[in-house]
């Protein structure tokens, strides 16, 4: 079971303050994790990863994503909904410290919301749910052991285990080294 920290709460509040919605949303932590309604709605989510001193996965699920699509002109192909929501995700990531927020993408985030290491917040306006924000902080850049059991990039964890001791050359701007894939992933 994941403990909601001040960091999680600050990230959720920063995101809610920047969301382009008709009514201001309030972030309320869900102590039991994602509800069945949230898991079902997470089939169409905006997901981004943050990499820095602290790494995390961020998920935004809005009940009326089409309103954001229309407000951003995305229904005409001018702007993508992920671009409209990016400032909100950047506000949440800014709480995590120095780092880089990767590209936001629309995809299913049901598995991420179901992960016990993910902290889920319901975004409400006047007591009416407007969506959910979820944050999974990674320890030392990796997902905890309980999350590793889930498929990663469509490949079962067992298949990744087969290449953990394969050594390869990794070139970085500051030098070169040889290490196992397990160490790279760690």
Kindly describe this structure.
The chain is an alpha+beta fold and 186 residues long. The protein folds into two domains: 6-142, 3-Layer(aba) Sandwich (Chemotaxis protein chec); 151-185, no CATH class. It is built from eight helices and nine strands. The chain has helices at 6-18, 36-41, 65-71, 81-94, 110-114, 145-148, 157-161, 181-185, and strands spanning 26-29, 45-52, 55-62, 99-101, 105-107, 119-125, 128-138, 167-172, 175-180. The strands form two sheets. Strands 1, 2, 3, 4, 5, 6 and 7 form a seven-stranded antiparallel sheet that branches. The longest helix is centred in the middle third of the chain and has 14 residues, at 81-94.
What's the gist of this structure?
The protein has 186 residues and is of the alpha+beta class. 32% of the residues lie in helices and 30% in strands.
Descriptors:
186 residues, alpha+beta, Chemotaxis protein chec, 2 domains, 7-stranded antiparallel beta sheet, two-stranded antiparallel ribbon, 8 helices, 30% strand
CATH H-level superfamily title of the largest domain: CheC-like
The CATH class of the largest domain turns out to be Alpha Beta
Helix content: 25-40%
Low-confidence stretches: 143-157
